[in-house]
């Protein structure tokens, strides 16, 4: 139990004891004057209750007086209302510190250095792009050369030089996904349509993923023997009997690269 609570208990018990003692004295006095017992008891409880009520009224009245007095005459030099005196120099330093803390910091960049870095980065990227483009062109050129060497090797004995050049030109355009011009008519000797189909499949497989419809169009546009055969039929027979004929199915043409 807190000491403050114990203090309240002592005070109220003391007040109650005084009131009871006062009531007892009033009862005794009433009996001494010839009063009866019942009325004396009423006098005892009435005096005790009135004493307690009187004490409570006094406390409430005094508490109101004290509160009013504090409002009229507040304490001077209170720690809550007092403003400590500070040296003007210290105040100025604190204000400066607050301003420094709240002021945003801006990083000043050197525009010349940034320009040099951006220029260097731009040059590096352009150099990389140029190198990559050259490498791509070289790879495509090497790949086309392999296909042309293969074409010359397969048709050298069966077509004229003029027709062979026209056929190689058509293969070059096909590799670049360009249209084959009209007016090319390649006549073959001792080659069957099966040989031409195998040649077409080998070229298509080498340059895939170009669709087989495109290689079918090339064969029909170039070779005279396929004029009367429709494209769907050519496409469906490209890989018939892979190991028959003078031109056979080959999965890899790199062996025909010129040394």
Short description:
With 259 residues, the chain is mainly alpha-helical. The protein contains 8 helices and no strands.
Description:
This protein has helices at residues 3-32, 37-72, 88-102, 111-155, 161-175, 193-207, 212-222, 231-236. By secondary structure, the protein is mostly helical. The model is unreliable at 77-85 (pLDDT under 50). The protein folds into 2 domains: 3-72, no CATH class; 140-256, no CATH class. The two termini are 109 Å apart. The chain is built from 8 helices and no strands.
- Count of separate DSSP helical elements: 8
In angstroms, what separates the terminal alpha carbons? 109 Å
| Broad structural category | mainly alpha
Beta-strand segment tally: 0
Shape: rod-shaped
Estimate the mean pLDDT confidence.
Answer: 81
Largest pleated sheet: none
Residue share in β-strands: under 5%
Helical proportion, percent range: 55-70%
Q: What ranges have pLDDT less than 50 throughout 5 or more consecutive residues?
A: 77-85
Tally the structural domains.
Answer: 2
Which H/E pattern describes the elements? Answer: HHHHHHHH
* Rg: 59 Å
